Amino acid sequence: MRLTPPSVVWGLALLLSPIVEDGWPGSIIWGISAAVLVCLVPWAIVTWLDRANDLRRGISRLGATPVVAAAGALMYLTLRLVRWLDGPLGLAAVIFAVFAGYAVVLLFQRQVQLDWSLMTYGGAAVVFLLMLGWWGLLPAAVLALAAWSLIRREPVRRRLLASLITGAAVCGGTYAALLQAVN
After folding, report:
1. Percent of the chain as helix, strand, coil, to the nearest 5
2. How far is 127 from 170, CA to CA, in rounded Å?
3. Beta strands of the chain (E only): which ranges?
4. What b/e readout covers 44-64, taking b as 16+ CB neighbours within 10 angstroms?
5. Are the C-beta atoms of 167 and 101 separated by less than 8 Å?
6. Alpha carbons 23 and 138: distance in angstroms, whole number
7. What is the pLDDT along the chain (183 residues), one digit of tens a residue?
8. Which of the 8 DSSP states describes residue 124?
9. In the chain, what's the furthest Cα-to-Cα distance?
10. Are 92 and 78 in contact (CB under 8 A)?
11. pLDDT at 24
12. Spatial separation of the C-alpha atoms in residues 129 and 179, rounded to whole Å
């Protein structure tokens, strides 16, 4: 059982990022919009396709190239939109961190079976610490407990620990690099 679904974790990061960067209440629209676009819309599409029995072979039938190319185009358009509307760049950094982690899952799914929940927990813990400073210890502790609850039940712990560390390095590293680039 996943204690905290990845969409909830990333949704919270997307909601908090513009508030931390630009203050309350003006930036909440950015956070809500990003959370809906990144977390809710894909879930709705997959649910709709599943009900229409259109997910028989899954996204893997397309191969990595079109999926990564589409995600890259979406990220570029998102960044352009945030820049054009003078939006919070920290929010764009969170979005890129999410998709960088998921791109790693897609690219290496045949070689290594990474667990997306644990990648999320590792990456989001780093993002919350960088975003919130000392206050980020609270969500990081919650994510550490969620990760521990998953890892302690599994007989093959190395794969799960690798997922946690990969998430921290890829998602957290992407977020840190992008914040450094815009400051």
Report:
1. 80, 0, 20
2. 11
3. none
4. eeeeeeeeeeeeeeeeeeeee
5. yes
6. 20
7. 456 788 888 889 988 998 888 877 778 888 888 888 777 777 776 677 667 666 555 555 555 566 666 666 777 777 788 788 888 888 889 988 998 898 888 788 778 888 888 899 999 999 999 999 999 898 888 888 888 877 777 666 777 888 889 999 999 999 999 988 876
8. H
9. 49
10. yes
11. 75
12. 13
Other C-beta atoms within 10 Å of 138: how many? 11
66 — phi, psi (to 5°)? -65, -35
Helices 28-35 and 89-107: crossing angle, nearest 10°? 20
Report DSSP letters for 139-158, one per residue.
HHHHHHHHHHHHHTT-S-HH
41-46 contact pairs (CB < 8 A, 24+):
43/7
Tokens describing residue 152 = 């302690």
Q: How many CB atoms lie within 10 A of CB 111?
A: 7
The count of C-alpha atoms lying within 13 angstroms of the C-alpha of 47, restricted to the half-sphere facing its C-beta, is 6
Residue with tokens 């407990």: 145
d(CA 117, CA 147): 8
